[in-house]
Design a protein that fits this description.
- 26% of the residues lie in helices and 31% in strands.
- By secondary structure, the protein is α/β, with parallel strands linked by helices.
- It has one domain.
- An eight-stranded mixed beta sheet has the order 3-4-5-2-1-6-8-7, sandwiched between helices.
């Protein structure tokens, strides 16, 4: 099964890099002065696809089910089970086929609290770099051997 991956961006200065990322993945990005400008520019180039997300009340841009941008304005705890629940509500097995299986997390330090949240949610880290890490849901993401 090909993994369905989304990006979760916590870098407040991600800015223009959003355009390239959103061409390949659905992106949830944290609200900031810099990011708001680029998200607005992105939405403005596709006005027919802009909508209000009924679950969060936030504006989102949907190119199709696999690509788009959602702005996260009210993120009190940046990476917790509540946020993961929202991601699975929007991209999990009842919302997408195939369901969400990988999350590329950008701009969030990999702390003990983040690791605990990942473990508690039943996810595992499959790759970690200085400014990003990739987690997968073992229940929905199969390897090349079908396991």
């Amino acid at each position: 099964m090909i993994p369905y991956r989304i990006a979760l961006v916590f870098d407040k200065f991600y800015g223009e890099k959003l355009f390239d990322l959103a061409e390949n993945l659905y992106v949830w990005i944290i609200g900031s002065e810099t990011n708001r400008k680029y998200v607005k520019d992105y939405w403005d180039t596709h006005p027919a696809n802009e909508s209000i997300d009924p679950a969060t009340g936030g504006r989102c841009f949907r190119l199709n089910l696999d690509k788009g941008v959602t702005m996260m304005e009210d993120v009190s705890t940046p990476f917790d089970s509540e946020l993961l629940d929202d991601l699975w509500d929007h991209h999990g097995m009842y919302a997408h086929d195939p369901p969400l299986s990988e999350i590329l997390v950008i701009g969030l330090p990999f702390t003990d609290d983040v690791k605990r949240t990942i473990d508690d949610y039943g996810l595992s880290v499959i790759e970690k770099r200085a400014d990003w890490f990739l987690v997968k849901d073992g229940a929905t993401c199969l390897n090349d051997n079908g396991q």
